[in-house]
Design brief:
Rossmann fold; alpha/beta; 5 strands; 2 domains; Arc Repressor Mutant, subunit A
Length: about 210
């Protein structure tokens, strides 16, 4: 049974999100905070919180700063951003700050449920890709070609993009988790990122096919 912290300064929005999230699983509970300070107080007092849903526009601290604080002080609690701001730069910045998911407030409640479930399961949820702006020949390049990956690294990246964990990737490819980690390190270096979430943002935004 999961417990979710909703950090949003508008009471009606908090209540609507709590009602939507209640449909995710039987017994799920939500606690609410209207500011970053309240959110941090909840996290300090309750170690049973499984996930935080965060708005970027808070009265006492912007959501990006709060994400950074959570990543440092409560790294075991993943965060999903739910914001009216959904431009590419904001998504990238949120992921870099530590978010594991990003949902536009223009999305349906079902999208929020999907995002939260994906992140609770250890995955990453990003908004649907916008039309790519690169020239067609760049968009049509495979990730392996574009980033100079080996065939093995390309297979690992494909499974990463499908939301598979290192263990699942190792089982599917018939290799050790250590080998998968070596490939992950090479992939992150090639994409100039430092996490799975950032790698998925790069793949999503640059329109590379696998």
């Amino acid at each position: 049974m999961s417990k979710i912290l909703i950090v949003e300064d508008h009471a009606l929005v908090r209540e609507a999100m709590a009602q939507s999230l209640a449909h995710l699983q039987p017994g799920l509970s939500c606690v609410e905070a209207s500011s970053a300070d309240q959110a941090l107080a909840w996290l300090e007092a309750d170690d049973d919180i499984d996930l935080a849903v965060i708005d970027l526009m808070l009265p006492d601290m912007n959501g990006f700063s709060l994400l950074a604080v959570l990543a440092k002080r409560f790294p075991e609690v993943p965060a999903v951003v739910v914001s009216a701001i959904d431009d590419e730069a904001s998504v990238r910045r949120a992921i870099k700050a530590g978010a594991s998911g990003y949902v536009s407030k223009a999305s349906s409640g079902q999208v929020l449920l999907q995002a939260v479930q994906v992140v609770l399961d250890g995955g990453v949820h990003l908004p649907e890709s916008r039309p790519a702006t690169q020239p067609a020949k760049r968009v049509n390049m495979s990730a392996t070609e574009r980033y100079g990956l080996t065939a093995a690294q390309g297979r690992v990246l494909e499974l990463l993009a499908a939301g598979k964990s290192n263990r699942e990737i190792a089982e599917l490819l018939g290799v050790s988790e250590g080998t998968v980690k070596v490939h992950m390190t090479a992939i992150f270096r090639a994409l100039d990122v430092s996490s799975r979430a950032q790698a998925l943002v790069v793949m999503s935004r640059r329109g590379a096919r696998l």
